[in-house]
Specification:
The chain is α+β, with helices and mostly antiparallel strands. The longest helix is centred in the middle third of the chain and has 26 residues. β8, α6 and β9 form a beta-alpha-beta unit. α2 packs across α3, α12 runs antiparallel to α13 and α16 packs antiparallel against α17. The strands form two sheets. The protein has a seven-stranded mixed sheet with strand order 1-2-7-6-5-8-9. It is elongated, with a radius of gyration of 28 Å. The protein folds into two domains: 252 residues, Ribonuclease H-like superfamily/Ribonuclease H (Nucleotidyltransferase, domain 5, 2-Layer Sandwich); 81 residues, Serine Threonine Protein Phosphatase 5, Tetratricopeptide repeat (Alpha Horseshoe). The protein has 17 helices and nine strands.
């Protein structure tokens, strides 16, 4: 049985992509016309011949089972359903815990007041697969996947466009499904910049209204960057799913191969060519649901987090949401839990800012001194401000300004500011000394 990479080689993927690039360079051609010309090219058909075994699809998550494919010989689209058990565990997450979330549970992680009254059980998870990553009217989302929680399972419904000339019927079917479900919000991963604008464009081109337009939208890419910025080098959804949830994607189709697979399917009509892409889309949906759930559970109980960097990220989310006391709790926990100096410094810095806002200068002063001992320029500035304006101890303020300048770690703008502060403090000290010299 051939691996997917070997099968793509047999398809002469490079030849297909070269042909597509040449067609894109020809002005005045619509996407439909370019695809028609691509299909008519005398390309090798080795992967569309009967009798060759299908590639092994990516291993679905435990408890997943697909339902019957509903497709006719002349249908413009295909619909495939997947069902994931609510008892399935993905790392620290039991998928069914989502149904216990209360309305408004997504507000903090979304950073959006529109989620204050949203029932998590009425959320749709959305992901698309497209003919390219450029976006715009030349990119077609040929696969639209929606995940949602039912009473007994997490369901994934995947719509696949089989005939580019009948995109309107495809989009109408998607709209009917979404209207029937009556979702109250949508969750994506990088959907704000890519998936949703692209989907809206396709509906506009068909002179229809996008059924997701106007719904509260949580693009979890942004909270993920905040939570795991100081823990993982990558915040790609597949990587997070593997590291946090144990969702192995070793046999998964590579995202960069998806357009070539779809073009090969259009040419050959061999549905098995895009079956791995369908599996890929379904896995992205269940992975997205599980990783969002993990983030929500972290906010309720940070002891579930395995790294101080994660706890610090949770504090940042809370601070942005205006939950300053909770953010302070997270920052203190991050300092205590982290074995990494960089995370401890970040937590101490943010904690000192919150304490300053609450006018708890004594507690903030301790943190600034600690940070200044580690040559933190921001802390040295805060100490100089504190001693100049709150304690009127100009000599002490001058000491911290001079220390910051001598460290040589200031940006040009900050160095200019500190040099002005240095001159001002020296003048104040000279004035005081002059007064003391008077008889």
């Amino acid at each position: 049985m051939k691996k997917l990479k070997e099968r793509l080689h047999d398809l002469e993927r490079g030849k297909i992509q070269d042909t597509w690039r040449r067609l894109e360079g020809q002005g005045g051609l619509s996407t439909r016309e370019k695809l028609d010309r691509l299909v008519r090219q005398n390309l090798k058909r080795g992967d569309g011949e009967a009798g060759e075994p299908s590639p092994r699809p990516p291993a679905p998550a435990a408890g997943a089972a697909d339902a019957a494919v509903r497709v006719g010989t002349n249908e413009p689209f295909l619909v495939k359903d997947f069902s994931y058990s609510l008892e399935g565990r993905y790392g620290k997450v039991r998928l069914g815990s989502w149904l216990s979330l209360k309305p408004g549970a997504l507000e903090v992680i979304a950073g959006d007041g529109e989620f204050a009254g949203v029932d998590p059980r009425r959320v749709a998870f959305f992901d698309s697969e497209t003919t390219g990553l450029a976006g715009g009217t030349g990119t077609v989302p040929f696969m639209l996947g929606f995940g949602f929680f039912a009473a007994d399972a997490f369901q994934a419904r995947i719509f696949v466009l089989l005939d580019l000339g009948r995109e309107g019927e495809f989009l109408d079917a998607v709209a009917r499904f979404l209207e029937e479900k009556g979702f109250a919000a949508v969750v994506t991963y990088n959907g704000k910049a890519f998936d949703l604008p692209l989907l809206e464009t396709r509906y506009v081109l068909q002179r229809r209204r996008c059924p997701l337009q106007g719904l509260p939208h949580l693009d979890f890419l942004f909270p993920a960057r905040t939570i795991w910025r100081n823990t993982f080098d990558s915040r790609k959804l597949g990587y997070l799913g593997e590291m946090l949830l144990g969702l192995s994607r070793d046999d998964d189709v590579d995202g960069s191969d998806i357009p070539a697979l779809y073009f090969s399917f259009l040419r050959s009509g061999a549905l098995r060519l895009i079956e791995p892409v369908i599996e890929h889309n379904a896995m992205d949906l269940v992975g997205l649901a599980a990783v969002v759930l993990l983030g929500v559970l972290y906010l309720d109980d940070y002891s579930l987090a395995g790294d101080g960097g994660e706890i610090f990220g949770l504090g940042r989310l809370c601070e942005r949401a205006g939950l300053l006391e909770k953010a302070e709790e997270f920052y203190k926990a991050a300092r205590a839990a982290s074995a990494r100096d960089d995370v401890a410094v970040l937590a101490a810095r943010r904690l000192s800012i919150l304490l300053k806002k609450r006018k708890l200068y004594g507690e903030a002063l301790e943190l600034w001194r600690e940070l200044a001992d580690a040559h933190d320029a921001q802390a040295q500035r805060e100490l100089s401000v504190h001693f100049e304006h709150r304690e009127r101890d100009y000599a002490m303020a001058l000491r911290f300004v001079e220390g910051a300048i001598e460290d040589g770690r200031l940006t040009p703008a900050r160095r200019q500011e500190m040099e002005k502060r240095l001159e001002r403090l020296r003048r104040k000290i000279a004035q005081l000394e002059g007064k003391n010299d008077l008889p």
